[in-house]
Amino acid sequence: MAFCHYGCLGSSNEMANQDAEVANLPYDYTQQQAEVVRLHDRYRRCLMDQKYYAYRLSKYQRWDTGTNLFAGVAMIFSLVTRNASAWLSDVSFAVGLVAALVFIGKPIFKVSEQIERYTTLHCGYADLFHRVEVLVADIRNAGHVSREHRQRIDEIFDRSGTLALREDTSVNMKRLEKFKAEVERAIPTETLWLPSK
Questions:
Q1: Scanning 46, 59, 172, 187, which has its CA 20 to 30 A from the CA of 8?
Q2: Per residue in 108-117, pLDDT tens?
Q3: Would you say residue 67 lies in a domain?
Q4: 161 lies in which domain range?
């Protein structure tokens, strides 16, 4: 996933290529303006990624909770009704078997690993969003991009690259487009600050 100044979506590799070609932006930017535009692009992308992985995390957490509740209730039902009439005993055995399959299937489908990964991505992008916001405010206060700012920019993009390695290889483009539109409404490009030179 990538979010760029042109309002496009692409893969993490495309975002890396865009980051590497800051000087080739089709706008008449100075080097410092281009660096701030690059930060704004990352800022908006971090918000979009944060929203996307919060959605994915919530989905897996609901699924995990639902299957746990179902399996727990099914096991209790099967234990309570095991000495009942023959047909009810057969039903309770089948329900208990389904509950056991749910418990056995969870490690196979690696639900807890997905929840952990989505938690890492959601929290990581939330942290980067905040760090970019603070950095742009610091640059604005200073009036220019300093060596210390560039070091922080490099740290942000290094962390972003590390997170990108854990992203989904296949994304829900419809959902991503929805979050992109939300980000564009929340942070319109024309409202973002740029240095005067």
A1: 59
A2: 888 889 999 9
A3: no
A4: 12-55+107-191
